[in-house]
Amino acid sequence: MADVLEIRPQESAEENAQQMTDGFHLVIDALKANDIDTIFGLVGIPITDLARLAQAEGMRFIGFRHEQHAGNAAAIAGYMTQKPGICLTVSAPGFLNGLTALANATTNCFPMILISGSSEREIVDLQQGDYEEMDQLNAAKPYAKAAYRVLHAEDIGIGVARAIRAAVSGRPGGVYLDLPAKLLSQTIDAVKAKQSLVRVIDAAPRQLPAPDSVKRAIDLLKGAKRPLVLLGKGAAYSQADKEIRAFIEKTGIPYLPMSMAKGLLPDTHEQSASAARSFVLAESDVVVLVGARLNWLLSHGKGKTWGKPKQFVQIDISAQEMDSNVAIAAPIVGDIGSCVASLLDQVGDNFPQPPKEWLDAVNEKKNKNLEKMAATLAKSPSPMNFHSALRVLRDIVKQNPDINVVNEGANTLDYARAIIDMYQPRKRFDSGTWGVMGIGMGFAIGAAVTSGKQVLAIEGDSAFGFSGMELETICRYQLPVCTVIFNNNGVYRGTDVNPTGGKDVAPTVFVKDARYDKMIEAFGGIGYNVTTPEELEKALKEAIASGKPTLINAVIDEAAGTESGRLTNLNPQSAAMKK
C-alpha cells in the first residue's frame, strides 16, 4: 500500500506537467486557429524559439536578411489573400526596420501584422537600460491602424484576434502586436490556454451602402455626357472581379485602371482607356472612383490633369475619405463588392450608354497613342533603352498571363506601367501610394510564397539596391523569381558629373558596368548578362522555363533615363533648373 502511495504523487506531477503550455506555443496556436500558416521574419532575441516552434508545429517560416523586406512580403501576401500577412521581428532595431513596411502597409491599405519581441515594461518605463530597450508600442502607433501589447499569456488569444480583426476590417492596414520577452516564457494551464484561443468570426463583415446613395450615383451617371470609371488597387483587393466587370460592360463606360488595378479587366479590353489616360482624365465630366483615392497619384483631383469641371462618384469603405481633396457629388460608403453589386442592380436594360461622340473620341485618342507607342517599341537602338527592353518583357507577360509582376524604380516603373499589359487581377505589385523604393525583393518573395507561381521582378538598378541581399533568401527557398535589373549605371541615369571636377562621382552615379548577375551566382542562382533585346528574350524564356531563382543584368543606355521618371516637378531644384 505504501508503495502505491509513493508512485501516485509522481504520476500526478507528470500529468500536471503535461497539462501546462507557454506563451510561445499559445502565439502559434492562436495564429493557426485563424488559418494563418506562414510567417515572414528574421530571428534573434527574444523570438528565435518562436520561429523554431512555429516551423515544428507545421507553419512555414520564411527567414529574411532584413526585417523591412520581411514586412513587405507579409504586406503583399495580405493584399493577395485578404488575410493579414505576419511579420516577426526582434526588439528595437529589428522592430524599427519592420516599421517602414508597417507604415507602407497602412498607407496602402494592405492587411499585415508586425509582431515584435520587446523589453519588459517595468524596465522600459523606468528607463533602466535593458537590452534593446524601447517603447515600441508608442513608437508604432502613429504608423499603424492599431497597436496592441499583450502582458499575460491568457490574453494572447484575444490579442491575436484583435490584431487580425483590426488588420482586415473596414479599411485594411498594418497592425502592431507587442510581445515582451517575459510573456513568451510564461506558463499556463493547457486547458485554460485552449479555452483562451479565439477564432475570429466574420473578420471583415460586409458594409452595405445606403440605397439613397446608390440612387444618387445612378442619377448622376444617367445624365453624364463623358463618364469614366477609375479603378484603384482597392477594387482589386476587394476580389469583386465579376461584379466590377459586369458593371463596366453593362454600362459601356470607358475605364482607367491605376497601376495595381491593371488586370482586373484585361488591359486589352475594348473599354480600357489606359492609352488615353491624360485625355479621359481631362475631358470626362462624371468620374466613378472605385477603390481609388484622389491623392498625389491622381493630382489630388484638381489642376491641369483634370481639365474640365467634373463631378465624382466615390465608392469607399471609409466615409472619412470623401471630400478629402475635392467635393464628392455622390459618395457611396460600403465595401466595394456590395456597392458595385447595388449599382449593378439599378443598371437596367434601358440604362443610357455613353454618347457615341465620347466613345469615338476616346478610341481615336487611344488608337493614336497606341500607334505612336508601337512605333517607339519597334525601334532597336544600341545599346538598349527602356522601351526596347520592355517590349520583350511585354511579350513574355502576354505569353505567360498568370505571371506575377513586381515593378519599382523611377523610369523603370513609369515606362513598364504604360507598356506591359496585365491580363489577370492581383498580379501587378509596385511602389503604390507611398511611392517608396525597396519593395522589390520583399514583394517578389511574398508573391512567390503566396501564389506558388512565377514572379518577374522588374527593377531599376537604384531600386534594386535597397533589397538586393534578399537574393540569398530567394535562392535559399528556391523560389521561382526572375529579377530583371535595368542597369544604366545610376539613379535616373549614369551620365551626371561632379561639377567641381573632384574625384567623387556625381550623387546619382553608380559603379560603371556593374555585373549584378554575379550576385545571384554567389548564392547558387542563375545569372545572365544581356545587351540586346534578343539576348534578353532568350534569357527570360530560359529563366521562366527553369522555375529557378534567376537574375538578368539588362544593360541599358546610361543616358536613357530622365530625372525622377515623370515626377521631376516633385524635386523643386531640378524643376527650377529646367525652366
Automatic annotation (TrEMBL):
BP GO annotations: fatty acid alpha-oxidation; oxalate catabolic process
Protein's recorded name: Oxalyl-CoA decarboxylase
Keyword Transport in record: no
Broad EC category: lyase
Residue ranges annotated for the Thiamine pyrophosphate enzyme N-terminal TPP-binding domain, each copy included: 23-137
Keyword Transcription listed: no
EC number: 4.1.1.8
InterPro entries to which the protein is assigned, alphabetical: DHS-like_NAD/FAD-binding_dom, HACL1-like, Oxalyl-CoA_decarboxylase, THDP-binding, Thiamin_PyroP_enz_cen_dom, Thiamin_PyroP_enz_TPP-bd_dom, TPP_enzyme_TPP-bd
Family: Belongs to the TPP enzyme family.
GO terms, molecular function: ADP binding; identical protein binding; magnesium ion binding; oxalyl-CoA decarboxylase activity; thiamine pyrophosphate binding
Reaction catalyzed: oxalyl-CoA + H(+) = formyl-CoA + CO2
Domain Thiamine pyrophosphate enzyme central as annotated: residue spans: 214-342
Short name of one Pfam family: TPP_enzyme_M
Keywords noted in UniProt: Decarboxylase, Lyase, Magnesium, Metal-binding, Nucleotide-binding, Thiamine pyrophosphate
Complex and partners: Homotetramer; dimer of dimers.
Domain of life: Bacteria
Cofactor names: thiamine diphosphate
Stored NCBIfam families: oxalate_oxc (TIGR03254), PRK09259.1 (NF006721)
Thiamine pyrophosphate enzyme TPP-binding domain ranges (all copies): 412-553
Pathway(s) this gene product operates in, as recorded in its UniProt entry: Metabolic intermediate degradation; oxalate degradation; CO(2) and formate from oxalate: step 2/2
Lineage, uppermost ranks: Bacteria, Pseudomonadati, Pseudomonadota, Betaproteobacteria, Burkholderiales
